[in-house]
From TrEMBL, chain A:
Residues 1-28 are annotated as: Disordered. InterPro entries: MetI-like, MetI-like_sf, UgpAE/MalFG_permease. This is Putative aldouronate transport system permease protein. It comes from the Bacteria. It is a multi-pass membrane protein. The chain crosses the membrane at residues 44-70, 107-128, 148-180, 200-218, 239-265, 297-322. It comes from Nonomuraea fuscirosea. Its main location: membrane.
Automatic annotation (TrEMBL), chain B:
InterPro entries: MetI-like (IPR000515), MetI-like_sf (IPR035906). The chain crosses the membrane at residues 27-52, 95-114, 126-146, 158-179, 200-223, 275-295. PROSITE patterns: ABC_TM1. GO terms for biological process: transmembrane transport. Keywords: Cell membrane, Membrane, Transmembrane, Transmembrane helix, Transport. It is found in: Cell membrane. This is Putative aldouronate transport system permease protein. It comes from the Bacteria.
Length: 332, 310
């Protein structure tokens, strides 16, 4: 690269300096910039050191502690002095028949969550956007938004109570039609449906708010023009609203897929029981049980590391694909 | 274009255009309203059912007679809750965690987001990248547990306050707010007046950032009130348990409570236990529900601020 003019590596954005020339002159300039910044902001550097220490201790050191996935961890020796075993933990994991079930369960559950919880908030937002700003819209929005703030423990308790074979209202209603009581939570096949649809119940209203904001940002002139051109409501939704919220939808989808493998431990663990374990045991719950209940730290760290890496790869792949298809990604 | 518009307006008039919507459009609107009504019912009915059950008599609940209105109105379950030491302790603990956690989290979030928002702060891009990376790749449960153990937080109240104190998403929201709503001229004025970095933050930036502080405080309060994972992993001492863990033990694990003397009393206890679950759900969600009007407004704002930068 020449010392004087090099093209910008990426398009400059508002918070970034325009491309700087490389080479020694560039390094000198950076140094003086850093010194100037220190003179101006030394108090802020002290201020920022506390949260930075937090990130180092609680986020980055744990990343380093993942070395125990390649070791036979002994609490006495600590993570650094423990004996190396290479890939033995991973071999043990991959050859364990449980592993395939775990992976299948985790993947199917997450895939189902993304599949259901991506389109529904969009539909909800589009519907809310159609009906104008009356009390009805406000009520629906307020009510659908509320479950997001109920804790996981409470939501799972509600599921258990509502679906209870003896006193739950669902079985009471089924009994009216002569259906014998069903223990839904004891059915492995029902687990995913319960998990996913209760999730939609809880988060659709919250997610819709983001799309509503995007819809509000659409230039009204577009709608006016479409109306004058004789577009029906459905056509306006299809050709004005949908393209208008597309960028938001892409970001939400990337984030959704990116979080796929990081699917919540909290809810799956609470919904688990011995009867539905065949489908409800997912990687995060397995990590918890292996590591903290059976105290096999190395194994649990190996499973966790595997999960994090798969998750990161997924995110990068989806981001790449989204960029290719729509020209937009998480990092423009 | 404008002439077309005005001629169209003249022909139909602004009021008429609303009335004379094509039949198809009116039909669509009706279908949309009906669908939203169904959605409303789906979300609301389970909640009403829970509240109605919590206010019904144990016998009615156990016979499955409660639908969406209390049957044989009774407050017995609520009275039992108010006399249960375990639940009260959990409530008290959760209040402490929510209050202390919010103060710590908001302080730390501002402490990192504010410098990151200053354009002249050298190293901000590197720092931001390092923060974002923790969103994409996490150390994982076990290594984090080892760190918490090593720094001696295990089985102390701090274990719930420190290890998850800063949310990267919240940092992004705060940074975006500072960057967009504090004009550079103010910084220049503060500098000319000889204000130091901290003084500028305290006397200029924070007074202008009350909406942001409200958003952050609400987000962290709700998080602290609702989470149970950290407590499950890091706490052994029942005296430190937050409400959510107590709830889990009672609601989901069915831990048996104090034995009753005779059979009739025992029957009643079992029946009461079921109503108790409904009442507990209501009581534990009450603080967040009371804050809900504020939450709804501020969370929406937070979502918008975050959405600007995506």
């Amino acid at each position: 690269m020449s010392a004087t003019t090099s093209p910008p590596l990426r398009s400059p954005s508002a918070n970034e300096d325009p491309a700087r020339p490389a080479g020694p002159a560039h390094r000198r300039r950076r140094w003086s910039e850093a010194r100037k910044s220190w003179r101006l902001h030394w108090q802020l550097y002290l201020l920022v050191s506390v949260p930075v220490a937090y990130f180092i201790v609680f986020k980055y050191i744990p990343m380093a502690f993942n070395v125990i996935a390649f070791k036979d961890y002994s609490p006495v020796l600590g993570p650094w002095a423990s004996e190396w075993v290479g890939l033995e933990n991973f071999e043990r994991l991959f050859s364990n028949p449980v592993f395939v079930d775990l992976l299948t369960n985790t993947f199917l559950l997450s895939f189902y969550v993304v599949l259901a919880s991506f389109p529904i908030p969009i539909l909800l937002a589009l519907a809310l956007n159609e009906i104008g700003n009356g009390w009805f819209k406000r009520t629906v929005q307020m009510v659908t938004y509320a479950p997001y703030f109920i804790s996981t423990v409470v939501v799972v308790s509600m599921i258990i109570l509502v679906l209870s074979p003896r006193i739950g209202i669902v079985n009471q209603v089924l009994a009216l039609f002569g259906v014998a009581p069903v223990d839904f939570l004891g059915e492995p096949d029902a687990f995913r449906h319960i998990y996913v649809w209760s999730d939609v119940w809880q988060t659709a209203g919250y997610a819709a708010v983001i799309y509503l904001a995007a819809l509000a940002g659409i230039d009204p002139a577009l709608h006016e023009a479409a109306k004058i051109d004789g577009a029906s409501r459905l056509q306006r939704i299809r050709y004005v609203d949908l393209p208008g919220i597309m960028p938001t939808a892409v970001i939400m989808l990337i984030l959704g897929v990116g979080n796929m493998m990081a699917i919540g431990f909290e809810k799956a663990y609470l919904l688990q029981n011995n009867l539905n374990l065949a489908q409800s045991e997912i990687i995060p719950t397995y990590v918890y049980k292996t590591g903290l209940i059976n105290a096999d730290f190395s194994m649990a760290a190996a499973v966790g590391l595997f999960n994090s890496v798969v998750n990161l790869c997924l995110l990068l792949v989806v981001n790449f694909a989204a960029k290719r298809v729509t020209g937009r990604g998480l990092w423009r | 274009m404008t002439t077309m518009l005005t001629s169209k307006l003249r022909r139909t008039g602004p009021a008429a255009s609303k009335v004379r919507e094509p039949l198809g459009d009116r039909l669509v609107l009706i279908v949309v309203r009906l669908m939203l009504l169904v959605v409303l019912a789906i979300v609301l009915l389970p909640l009403i059912y829970i509240v109605a059950s919590s206010l019904s008599s144990p016998a009615a609940v156990n016979a499955g007679r409660v639908r969406f209105w209390p049957v044989e109105f009774s407050l017995e379950a609520y009275q039992t809750i108010l006399n249960n030491a375990e639940i009260l302790q959990g409530y008290y603990n959760s209040l402490i965690y929510a209050a202390a956690g919010t103060v710590i989290s908001v302080t730390l979030t501002v402490a990192i987001a504010y410098p990151l928002s200053r354009k002249s702060f050298y190293g901000r891009n590197v720092l931001m990248t390092l923060l974002i990376f923790t969103m994409l790749f996490s150390g994982g449960l076990i290594p984090t547990y080892m760190v918490v153990q090593d720094v001696g937080l295990l089985d102390t109240r701090w274990a719930l306050l420190i290890p998850n104190a800063i949310g990267v998403w919240q940092v992004i929201i705060a940074r975006t707010f500072f960057a967009n709503s504090i004009p550079d001229e103010l910084y220049e004025a503060a500098m000319l007046d000889g204000a130091s970095g901290m003084r500028t933050l305290r006397s200029v930036v924070l007074p202008l950032s009350k909406p942001l502080l409200a958003v952050l405080a609400l987000m962290y309060t709700v998080y602290q009130w609702n989470t149970y994972f950290d407590a499950l992993v890091y706490l052994k001492d029942p005296d430190l348990f937050p409400l959510q863990i107590v709830l889990r033990n009672i609601l989901i694990l069915n831990t048996p409570r104090t034995g009753a003397v005779d059979l009739a009393q025992q029957m009643h206890q079992i029946q009461l236990a079921n109503v108790l679950r409904y009442a507990l759900i209501v009581v534990s969600s009450l603080p967040v529900l009371m804050m809900y009007p504020f939450i709804a407004r501020h969370f929406t704002k937070g979502a918008m601020v975050g959405a600007v930068k995506g």
